[in-house]
Amino acid sequence: MLFATGPSINTRLLVAVLASVALLITEQRGQQLDFLRATLSFFIEPLKHLVDMPSVLIEQTNNTVNSYAALKKDNERLREDQLIHQTRLLKLEALEKENIRLRALLENSFKLGEQVLIAELLSIKMAPYEHILVVNKGTRFGVHPQQPVLDANGVVGQVFRALPLSSEIMLITDPNHAIPVQVNRNGLLTIAVGSGQLNRLILPFLPSNADIRPGDLLITSGLGGTFPQGYPVAVVDEFTSQPNKAFASITATPSAKLDRNRELMIVWSKSTPVPLIAKPPSPETAGTEDAHK
Fold it and tell me: ∠ CA 219-222-223 to the nearest 5 degrees?
């Protein structure tokens, strides 16, 4: 023959089937193939892991990416929550301090004995040599010029200009402001004048031999008719005698917290009740006023 031919396909199929049957019978009848199976598995197992490795790597990579994305999202959410909670804590702290200030004002308003109206700070005019505050109460609430203004610690100043919806208050540290005071220890009378500095008053009219010393409390004397007697004004912090001059150099620190107030007390010394709400004129009153006009 020119070309050699091998077994036919049917022959090979028959041989394979017979070999398979023989192997199955051998497997069922005894354990002769266990060693062969173990030997083959030793070589096949790494191939199985090598075949599974791409899918395992892809799955692990997906899990890692998803975990990173989830952690990043949770981290951003926690940061936002932390910022929100910190902001709320700041607001709560501010409200707590405001509550403390209002409680102090309320307690002191009962101790004063005069009628008071609590006003909130609107703005500050701190031009050179001018210390003016603007509050949210005016003539519609009965406020008028020269009324004393206090905080929970002492005298702040007096109403300088009263407008319908607001009032301007001149601080006791304004250079144009003077307040009659007396030394609480011995009753010595003098005048405290604003220095233009927010934390200092000047007592320019006491001689070098005056009975006054650092640490003395200055209170309102009641003279002049503007400030009722007995309100804390300042504490003497320096006394310097000047032999060549008629008066000593004396400075004092205001008792009121002039740079920290958000609420102030406007004081009435009259017995007329303070209007808490601005009321429009009644029709009868309006008609009478029009007739007079």
Answer: 115
Q: Write the single-letter amino acid at 54.
A: P
Q: Answer whether 200's CB lies under 8 Å from 173's CB.
A: yes
Whether the Cβ atoms of residue 206 and residue 186 lie closer than 8 Å to each other: no
CA dist list (Å): 193 to 104, 174, 177, 179, 245: 27, 8, 6, 7, 18
The model's pTM: 0.59
Cα 154 to Cα 104: distance, rounded to the nearest angstrom = 12
Q: What is the pLDDT of residues 102-143, one digit of tens each?
A: 666 666 554 555 688 889 999 988 677 789 999 999 999 999
Q: Are 121 and 133 in contact (CB under 8 A)?
A: yes
CB atoms within 10 A of CB 147: 21
- Other beta carbons within 10 angstroms of residue 24's beta carbon come to 10
